[in-house]
Amino acid sequence: MDKRIFWLALGSFAISTEGFVISSLLPDIASDAGISVPLAGSLITAFALAYAIGAPVLATLTGEWDRRRVILWTLVFFVIGNLVAAVSSSFELLLIARIVMALSSGLFAATAQGTAVALVDDHHRARAIAVVVGGTTVAVAVGAPLGALVAAIAGWRGTFFAIAALGALSGAILWWRLPRGIIGTRLPLKRRLAAAVRPGVMPILLTTALALIGAFTVFSFIAPLAIQGGGLSPIALPGMLLAFGIGAVIG
User: Fold this and answer.
1) 77-133, pLDDT tens digit by residue?
2) CATH classification of the domain holding 171
3) In this structure, is residue 191 part of a structural domain?
4) Which domain holds residue 145?
5) Whether 89 contacts 80, CB under 8 Å
6) Does the predicted TM-score (pTM) go above 0.90?
7) Looking at the domain assignment, is residue 146 inside a domain?
8) What would the pLDDT profile of 44-71 be if each residue is shown by its tens digit?
9) Strand partners for 66
10) Measured between alpha carbons, how far is 58 from 78 in angstroms, rounded to an integer?
């Protein structure tokens, strides 16, 4: 299998780490911004909505672009979003930065999987996608706890700086390693969404959505639940996230 796929997985690791580590940063962000933790939680809601809506729309608009170009630009905007978040002086600016990160993350995920498929023969397509998606699994198990540990040492802004550096490293490697000329197929948005109404698909989507809502409602507020509710020290958060990540990998 083409080794370049593992570098795409590194990009998935970077963007997914940011997506999961935010849960451990909410109390500190709320304190610095002078807002409530539930309001700070809207950073997660805005990210999720922008990711869900933006990914299929942007993938449709950029379907015929060179995939190397799309991947590199998504990482550029991802890095910029993290840097803006790290130096943000208001909650509103931080919210905008997270929306930018969500849009770039969603497009990266879609494009990286398509690029991975294009780099291998037909017999290894499923494995190639699994490797790229595996970057997200590793982010849950390792990236989020490490990000929380950085926050415990250098503050929540330090975590965004660290993720920006990881995103920049991923972009530099992919700029060097990915070939030019891999062109995708532009699928209309209507055709992309048509799969949801196929027989048997909607119940699966609904079941998955309910299961994830249940899991991530708790995960999103794991920091205040552990610190304010459970009386744990903030330094215990990396261990909490690590336990969740190990469970996710096993599951």
Assistant:
1) 999 999 999 999 999 999 999 999 999 999 999 999 999 998 888 788 899 999 999
2) 1.20.1250.20
3) no
4) 4-186+196-250
5) no
6) yes
7) yes
8) 999 999 999 999 999 999 988 999 999 9
9) 183
10) 15
